[in-house]
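Q: Okay, next protein. This is UDP-glucuronate 4-epimerase from Eleusine coracana subsp. coracana. I've checked the sequence twice, so it should be correct. Can you predict the 3D structure?
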Amino acid sequence: MPPSGITDAAAKGVKLERYASGGALLLRRAASGKLVSASSHLLFRATVLATLALVFLFTLHYPSLLSRSFHLSSSASTSTSLASSSAQHSHRSLLMSSSPSTSAAGTYSGAKWEEQIRRSARPARDGGISVLVTGAAGFVGTHCSLALKARGDGVLGLDNFNAYYDPALKRARQALLASRGVLILDADINDALLLAKLFDVAAFTHVLHLAAQAGVRYAMEAPQTYVASNVAGLVSVFEAAAKHADPQPAIVWASSSSVYGLNTDAPFSEDHRTDRPASLYAATKKAGEAIAHAYNHIYGLSLTGLRFFTVYGPWGRPDMAYFSFASAIVAGEPITLFADARRDFTFIDDVVRGCLGALDTAGRSTGSARTGKKTGPAPLRVYNLGNTSPVPVTRMVAILEKLLGKKANKRVVTMPSNGDVPFTHANVSHAAHDFGYRPTTSLEAGLRHFVDWFVDYYKLDVKIATANAKPTDNKTAKKKKKMSASS
């Protein structure tokens, strides 16, 4: 057995060795900790810098980040230049910010500009109304603005000229309206600052709100644009009218026959259920009707919703079936028809009369932008505006073939589940009772007016078939000449 001294020395040596080993370990851990700490600091700083850079880029490019490029494939170009340029147009963002940096209110300003606004919005006849028309460069908006101005009412238009379809057609409509003394501002309905400014500058008695993202099938490709325009945009207009206009205007706005969705009871009545939309487009329009109920109840806005049924005619939308079919027939392109599809085609003149009738019979709003209180209930109305005569789409194509003197290359398919419905059929008894709405234009007569305009606008070398109008068409040669002049 070794002496105790040797044992103590050995024990001390083991302890020293352990201390040394532990110290080395601590040093290594400390060094490693510092390295990790340094790395963490560097990573944190890099993350902060990257975040700031992204925020800067987002702020700098905000409109372009929110916008979506719209491009519809058109028929092949013909020697008549029927198709527009194939270049893809950038769609202005529908989610406009109300901040001063993105609002058009800064661009539209000054005493001269305000006088232009007042001049366009000022009625030219005793008892005339002053109307702010949104979507004024659109199909229905253009015709309504022309009709209002022609009878001596004041009209100011608003349109964002997006490229859902060829903006050149919208600019041509704008030029037509300008020649009649109607000013259209290039701006968006989600621009809250500009809307508030317009209500400050001009005392609008009415708003005809027609701006919307149209098209049933396109909603499957760009759903956010429908929410931004048809829901957020509607709220934007209601907000401005309720809280900035003094006095509050009466508002007539475009709903749609699409709200009837999967309803099979015919003809469609305003009393039928509308809780089964077949498309997102239909859902946004139904949402709009619910929103209108809330703003009528809370703010006392006088609101009238108009459910349009397949409107057609001169200056129409190229994405609509009758327009695209005519383009395809002339260009020799094939067309796709849905089997057994029927539509209540309604001529634009009849729809315009319905819109003006709704404006003329709209009651006053009862709210106050100054006090935030209302003096009583305000009118809340919904009407169908249709032709009351569903027609097979194949019949519509046959009429176009006859007028254009050329057979269509037809391809008939089963209707897909893309938002379309088998048929539409309007009951217009409520509109007939309340403001005398009675459609008078047959599909044959209406399509002839469209083809007359279509051939002239695109400068087509097409000899239109001789008219074979019936007396019941209620479209005499004199009326046709008047229509051509107005178009």
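A: Here is a summary of the prediction. DSSP finds 14 helices and 15 strands in the chain. The radius of gyration is 32 Å.
Q: Noted. On to the next one.
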